[in-house]
Amino acid sequence: MLCLCLFSPGLQNHSGGAARTFCATEGRCSITMSRTVSSWILSSARSSIVSLGKGRWYSIRIPNRNKIKWKLIFSKTHPYPAGSCSLDRTFSFPKAFRHTSTEEEHFSFQLSPAQINHILRAGELSHRTLDLNGKSANSVLRFESNQLASNSPIEDRRSAATCLQTAGMMFGVFDGHAGAACAQAVSERLLHYIAVSLMPRQSLEEIELAVEAMKPVRPILQWHRHPNDVEYQEISSQYFENLRVYWQHLLDLDTEPGFSLEEAMICAFKRLDSDISLEVQAPQENELMRNIALQVAFSGATACVAHVDGVHLHVANTGDCRAVLGIREEDGTWSTLPLTRDHNAYDEFEIRRLKREHPRSEEKTLFVNDRLLGILMPSRAFGDVQLKWSKELQHSILENSCDVEALNIYQYVPPNYHTPPYLTAEPEVTYHKLRSKDKFLVIASDGLWEMLSNEKVVKLVAGHLTELNMHKPPLTFKKPVNLGYMHNLLLQRKSKGLASLDQNIATHLIRHAIGSNEYGEVDPEKLAAMLTLPEDLARMYRDDITVTVVYFNSETIEDYYRNHK
Description:
Elements: E1 3-7, E2 19-23, E3 29-31, H1 37-48, E4 49-51, E5 57-59, H2 113-120, E6 125-128, E7 140-148, E8 156-163, E9 169-177, H3 181-198, H4 201-212, E10 221-223, H5 236-253, H6 261-281, H7 287-298, E11 300-309, E12 312-318, E13 322-328, E14 334-338, H8 348-357, E15 367-368, E16 371-372, E17 382-383, H9 391-399, E18 428-433, E19 438-444, H10 446-449, H11 454-471, H12 483-495, H13 505-515, H14 524-531, H15 538-541, E20 545-552, H16 554-563
Antiparallel strand pairs: 1-2, 2-3, 4-5, 6-7, 7-20, 8-9, 8-10, 9-11, 11-12, 11-17, 12-18, 13-14, 13-19, 15-16, 19-20
Helix pairs in contact: 3-5, 3-6, 3-7, 4-5, 6-7
Pfam family, one: PP2C
Family: Belongs to the PP2C family.
Keywords: Hydrolase, Metal-binding, Protein phosphatase
């Protein structure tokens, strides 16, 4: 790893110098001290940013592994014209706390603890699976999720749903690049495609008959969403029609019992990516729907989806999101089991795969500066038709479109673009049979994993579980028990310190990812500085972070093995 230590004059700490380490291989600034971090970031910000005409501010430093997934040649900021649609409509930082530019004169990194918590907890989502008796018979006990933006607005998305016509629950994390459009579409649609792929023929026939007769269709999924999660209401009818075409295709296959779970996930990923490509090629009179289809196809997203059904866990991954299992061993120690591989230039399997798929004459140009064709970090993704279509098709689609510049779409064909497609959305699927010692699954975008190792994440979750249990006073009941008595007990528990602890484990992980010092402890000053970075600087220091942690029910898993001896 090549690291450049840059020293700012006038900023001294007890060791005589305030150093910032810039890792050329990691592409993000690593802060090696805390006391002067705020003033250092401000001074370095103003010397590290260059204005490109009247466009956005971008860093002039683009190292090999810069986590900005598409190299930004130039990007203007345009207002959306009438009839077009901005697709970035999810929450971002509260504007009262976050600076909008490094050029602001009154630039402050100071936040109160309450303000820090307000920012960190804004995207919290949690759900506990309970039956009518208040117990969980599901192998999923609960899940907790959160997001923190670096891009403005955030380009990550997440999904969680219970399957209503098949068994199981699904959890997805989607990391967008070149905008949020593709990640938004995939987060809305992919779980439906997987669920339909798993449905028996009879259920598909019932749905088709109901649609033909214009009768209500039984829901396929029960979504678990954050209040700020949005949908493409303008194009939902087209999405439904294309999903219908897919299940009609499955009915035409005339096969029973249908796909295995692994086959279903692979087929769903590939079919959705194909639909994204075809939708933008189809004639479309509605300009708004046309613009959405363009933005979805010409942006991109990586995806990691977990399907849990009893003791059967399947994880499908395309790109560089990651899923890691936390295991508590018999001696009480914790171990880590990665269930995905990062699909990028650092993975030997991916390099060999791409070399097999393209002529030998292209071997030296497939990856340039550790990017696919010198442009894209992940080697698998949805969308990104610039790396899938022929030059002629790209030119034809963009030539016949409206003002694509207003949609931040630019036609750029990289050098050595000879034998597309270079990119695929086909996932790798990993199967794991859950055991009682498998306690939780962490699914997250690479914004978390570039800050924390797999082992550190598992250690933090395990430590958080222990800390929560230590803070919880036992609930001792005095008969008769009534609602007022229970309410008082809960208030007592809250007053004993739980309020100061992150209840949501995803928030706890994000707090450590951006605020930890070299000793692994959260530094309040560094945390405040990282949260108040201006929009034109934040991406130099951190990426969007999305985390979902799924806790497993050990009792249910043990019951399964007792009943299947």
